[in-house]
Specification:
heterodimer, A: mainly beta, 4-stranded antiparallel β-sheet, 0% helix, B: 111 residues, mainly beta, 6-stranded mixed β-sheet, globular
Chain lengths: 111, 111
Amino acid sequence: NAGVTQTPKFRILKIGQSMTLQCTQDMNHNYMYWYRQDPGMGLKLIYYSVGAGITDKGEVPNGYNVSRSTTEDFPLRLELAAPSQTSVYFCAASSYNSPLHFGNGTRLTVT
Amino acid sequence: AQSVTQPDIHITVSEGASLELRCNYSYGATPYLFWYVQSPGQGLQLLLKYFSGDTLVQGIKGFEAEFKRSQSSFNLRKPSVHWSDAAEYFCAVGGYNKLIFGAGTRLAVHP
């Protein structure tokens, strides 16, 4: 089992560009999440989903969009990249009474 | 407001010494509690979790944690630290489908 797979691992964007961070899981978990990690700040929840077709905002959703058309996939979209979105992004999946299982992250730099 | 506090940003211990990493939380009800570890450039790996029952929980790699409801704490301990334990440690609290993370404690191990 691969668990949670994120692509790409690294990306450099110019200000104003757009991109999609991909996340897929093979654990058949209902819940999926996007977090961003900044130095000294821990992880902040961007968006989450409790099942296909259902998404909701987390703590820091501005500048991002998500969709959940299938159980397996939960892509994160940045429409107009800004330097403040330079971060490491983690996707995670879980189910009832099962803790979050994380992917290995995507390191994004916006210049 | 819900929050997690890890008072120690950095801790340095000698190999073979004991370790305690502190975690305090503010949460409306009795939360689920977790400790995750992150090695450089990696995702987060679950060390242990508390859902209910015995307040002393055992995890992987020889770690344990104790839930103290009266102190709103969930401190992580290890009796003898190994050089490979050098990493960043995150405490997290919440329901089963959303977690709030602390800012992390970076552990350095001297030989």
